[in-house]
Structures are given as structure tokens and as C-alpha cells.
Amino acid sequence: MTATLPFPRWLSQALPEPGAWPVWTVRSVHLLRLTGADSLRFVHDQTTQDLSSAPPGCLRRSCAVTATARLTALLDVLVEKHAARLVVLAGDGPALHQRFDRHLFPADRVTLLPTVQAQQVSLLGEAAAALLAAQGIAMDPTGAGWCSVALDNDRALLLRGTGFGNGVPGSRLLLPESHPLPPWLHHCPRLTGAQVELLRLQQGMPTWPGEINDAFNPFELGLAEAVALNKGCYLGQEVLARLVTYDGVKQQLRLWRSSIAFESLSEDNVIQGEDGARAGVVTSRSVLDTGSAGLAVVRRAWLGAPTLRLGHGTISLSLPGAAQFPPSTNSVSAADP
User: Fold this and answer.
1) Which domain holds residue 251?
2) DSSP per-residue string spanning 8-27
3) Do 177 and 69 lie in a common domain?
4) Burial level of 61, CB count in 10 A (0-12/13-18/19+)?
């Protein structure tokens, strides 16, 4: 690692020293694959991202939403020639597979393959590419978002990005669920579950069911980059278009921190303003050495408040590192110290 990662001090103190990077983590994800000439058109119509002209090798972040634009899954779409793979980063993969199956018509030239589980190995840090290259693993062609690579006499998928957000440099390997982890990984520090969770919170990556449920839409959760506003009709498109046109996003995802110890936090997730009015709701919470932290969806009127109340204690708000919201004439930002 040749440079300090752009993390706030409270997170940097919880992660390995910069000189120890790259670091890695692994988790299980669901993979959906569709084959056939209409595969990309079908995924284009069923998710929020513009995939109509995406070339093979392209990787695009997208969302699956309901007809009322409630987020059900966060996806990375890997474009192939006459096929597409979907990495379910957060959400219910089998439920998404069932939804796709219900929406397929006999005339669709699409075959929906069974859902499978895979290991997503994320290598974090600017030196991740050099580590992979030393093992003969590199992205080809230049500029592609993903490609198939050889790994221990088997095949794996190499993806640009770590899955945490654009603020965390690195790459990912998708391995079959039964494939042993490469032995060279163990020469680098592995993040603990607590460290992974703090990084997720700081970046503002939603998880299911805390943030991904029937209460929130992608714009409220800072996923504007995964929504194309000019792609034509898709499930939930009308609702999302109205939210932008009429400045209708009334709440936003925020990172919160508190000096209150985790075990002393109020069990009630309702956040209040100083006047006692409901200001938002906590969706995730975790332990910090200096207190506690988490994610919350906060009503717009309170986004600029220096502190809010959670039970009998106070919390402070800041913008998650990877969150992107649609333009708003009334938007309020909060810097992360």
C-alpha cells in the first residue's frame, strides 16, 4: 500500500495498518445466469440499470425493485454475448430467481439457469492488482469490468471493484462454492467480520433485511448511480422518475456514530429531533472501540442537524462514503470527520 486510504480516523484505527494492505475478505453470494438472445433485454427490463447497449465484458451495478420502487436486491450485472450473470450483492437471490421465472414468457429467447452460490473473495487496496498479477491473474481486455481467469486448474471470474463501493480500491474473484481458497491469500491479512461490517457501514452499502426491505427505495439508500433515468420502461420506473422530477426523495441514508457503548444503546430504532419529533430510523448498528456506529434513514428536514436523539443518548450523522443521491434543490450534506 503506497498511500493512505481515504477513510475517516475512526475507521482507519479499526482496520489493519496501511503497510499491511492489501487485505482480503470472503463471503457467499448468489449467482443468477440467463442465456439466450433476449437475456440482456430481459435483465434490462427487470432492473434499474441501462443494459441495452452494454458490450460483453461490461460490469454494471443495478437494483431489483418492486412496482412501487422498493428495493429488493442490489446486483452486479456481468454482461456476456447473448447471456448475463447477476451477482446478488445484497438481497434474497432465490426470491429474485422466482420473480424472473414468473416474468418470462414462452416467446422470450431466455433460459434461466438454477441459482448457485459462489465465494466472493474481495482483495482490498491499491496493491491488489499487483498481487493478482504475480499469480498470473489479470484483467483482459483492458477496460473490461470482468473476465474469466485460470485459477488452480479451474476457472474463476475476476471483477473490477471490491463490492464495497468506489471508495475502496481493489478487485474480486468469484470462485465456485466448493473451491478451496488460494493459498497465496493467506500471506495477506484477512479482515475480521467486525472490520468488514464497519467498512460496509462507512461506505453505506445496504444489506438485507436492514436496509433492503419494503420500506426504502434506491434513491433513499444512496444508490442513484445504479438507476438509469432515461432507459425506458421497467418495473418501478414510473415511481423513481416521479421522485426525481418532483424532488420527492424525503429521506436519505446516513452513517451515524455515538459515544454510547453498543450494549447501552436504546433498543428502539426510532431517531428523534431535539423537539421529540420523529427524524428517522436506525437500520444497522455495530460496535466501535469508542462507542457505536451504524446506518439510518433520516428525514430530509433533519439531515443538517448536528446531533439527533436515539433513546436517551445522542448520535451524529455523516454521509456514507459510497452513497450517491439524485439531484435535489433541497439537499443537505454532512461531512465525515
Assistant:
1) 201-318
2) -HHHHTTS--GGG--EEEEE
3) yes
4) buried
Q: What is the pLDDT of residue 334?
A: 52
Through-space distance between the first and last CA atoms of the chain, rounded to whole angstroms = 23
Question: Locate cell 443495478: which residue?
Answer: 62
pLDDT digits (tens, 9 = 90+) for 299-337: 999 999 999 999 999 999 999 999 999 987 454 555 454
What DSSP character marks residue 260? S
Cis check: omega of the bond before 94, within 30 degrees of 0: no
Q: Tell me what percent of the chain is helix, strand and coil, each rounded to the nearest 5.
A: 20, 35, 45
CA 80 centroid distance within chain: 22
Per-residue pLDDT tens over the stretch 229-275? 888 889 999 999 999 999 999 999 999 999 999 999 999 999 999 99
> Which CATH number belongs to the domain containing residue 101 in this structure?
3.30.1360.120
In this prediction, residues 122-126 reach a mean pLDDT of 96
For residue 71, the tally of other CB atoms under 10 A from its CB is 28
115 and 243 in a common domain: no
Shared domain for 257 and 132, answered yes or no, is no
| Residue 12 CA to its chain's centroid (Å) | 20
- Cell 420502461 -> residue: 233
Domains contained in the chain, number:
2
Compute the average pLDDT of residues 58-79.
97
Cell 462514503 belongs to residue = 321
Same domain, residue pair 147 and 212: no
From 253, 255, 254, select the one nearest 220 (Cα to Cα): 253
Estimate to the nearest angstrom the gap between the alpha carbon of 315 and the chain centroid. 24
- Residues 276-290 have a mean pLDDT of 97
- For residue 302, report the phi and psi dihedrals to the nearest 5 degrees: -110, 5
Same domain, 259 and 159: no
- Of 149 and 332, the one with more pLDDT: 149
Strand ranges for the chain from DSSP E = 23-35, 59-65, 71-80, 83-91, 111-112, 116-124, 146-151, 154-160, 170-176, 251-258, 270-272, 278-288, 291-299, 308-310, 313-318
Tell me which of 314 and 2 has the higher pLDDT.
314
CA 307 – CA 271 distance, rounded (Å): 10
